[in-house]
Design goal:
504 residues, Beta-Lactamase, Helix Hairpins, 4 domains, seven-stranded mixed sheet, five-stranded antiparallel sheet, 14 helices, 17 strands, 42% helix, elongated, binds adenosine-5'-triphosphate, binds magnesium ion
Length: 504
Amino acid sequence: MSGSEDLWEIIGQSGASPICAFDKDCRLIAFNRAHSDEFFRIYAYRVQIGDIFPDLFLPEQASVIRGFMERALKGEIFTVVEEFGDPDVVRPYWEIHYAPLRDAAGEIIGAFHHAQDITGRLRAEAELRSAQDTMRQSQKMEAIGQLTGGIAHDFNNLLMAIGGNLELLSMKLRADHPARKYVENASLAASKGARLTSQLLAFSRTQKMDIRPAELDPALEAAIGLLGATLGPMVELEIRLGAGGFWAATATDQLDLAILNLAMNARDAMPNGGKLTFSSRLCRARPPSGGPEADFLCVSVSDTGQGMSAAVAARAVEPFFTTKERGKGTGLGLAQVYGFVRQCGGDLRIFSAPGEGTTIELLLPRVGAHLADRPSPTPTGLRQPDRGQGQTILVIDDDDSVRTVLADALRTVGFKVMEANGGEEGLKQLSTVRPAAAIIDFIMPGMNGAEVARLAQVRHPRLPVIFVSGYYDTIALDGISGATVLRKPVDMEGLHRAVSSALN
Ligand SMILES: Nc1ncnc2c1ncn2[C@@H]1O[C@H](COP(=O)(O)OP(=O)(O)OP(=O)(O)O)[C@@H](O)[C@H]1O
Ligand SMILES: [Mg+2]
């Protein structure tokens, strides 16, 4: 053996990649240690010189490997990726390079291959791809959320001006006035608009929800009870609640709406009738925000309807995504459901295929029942609106139509109202007068509502403050004593209630 042949022997034997050479009958004529070890790993057999290599494989793999070897024996140089191995032992993915072996005259006398187990690399690539997909999806949702939140916020102001003016108008109309029914129709349309914006705000997560622990099964039962006759006689309803005694972080009004939205979708997917099943159970899952597995309560809503293609399922929760004909769907149903579960710290999963029905799972974080004793952050229970009795209220809002309607609504019940179109103007008025309360828009150009309120309370400690906003950030509200938040669009009753509770 020459020195260079020794060197090739050392190189071949010390590599971790299996290498083997074979003659024109596919008999092994040489292999390195790695080849012997790797073949033993995948088939628990030690190869021998002279073995007909394809015969050592399981039948369906034998024809594949023989095909590769024959291509190389015809002179082709190529690389393939294939799974080889005993499925009961281990079956890695191999990247295998083939080339013919030629004698000094250039005649093909056999071929050889060297292989590499790339299972780990493929898995890492797949994980990276899926992580990138998840990230792209969540960035997209975030962007859509910001956009819809912005639109919904402006739209809310408009609705509030429309609804408020209509209420004021209807106060001025006699009960039998012929124009009354037009006002009522318009008010109805405005309140439908308000429901839409609230679904949008739920999706965009700019609307703060009243999330608190609730025993899930009774809450679900109540939500399902609200469906009443909406499902129609063609839909068979089955309810299997299995989360008895467990509590979840949820917002009851949003849960009611989510169940309604899911039931409507199921009904629409089953035009010829079918079965709708609601169930609940305790499960383990990874929180969408990351971290280790935790307890969730899973609400599952299954129908036997037409199902969704993968492309539809991937976009189903986007606001305004709908496959329904004009006028039948706005594409906000699942957006609300998604916004709701995400704000609770949970997640939404869709399992569906065309013709195979749909299952939508809502995961809500499980919480301990003891947390339920937390005091409610928002006042509940109806209070009779107090008459203003000449007390002064300062209204600060940069939106003229919103400010005017708030002011007029307060004047109609006997308050004196001072108006300011921004924080600076409001503070100027506060330097001369101490009102009984201030109503402040939260999002304003320049100084925001929280800053205005803080400065106002420096001048007049314990001045009752009511924020009016579509958006709000509770952290910003923390430092302000006695703040109440009214969500736009505010109806007159809500406004009067907030003012009287602030004054008390
Ligand atoms: N249970 C279901 N079966 C089949 N497809 C569904 C189901 N639920 C949702 N989808 C699909 O997802 C789309 C979006 O649903 P989503 O509830 O957000 O909007 P929509 O029902 O079209 O309109 P909206 O709920 O605002 O009236 C639907 O148009 C439909 O294609
Ligand atoms: Mg829907």
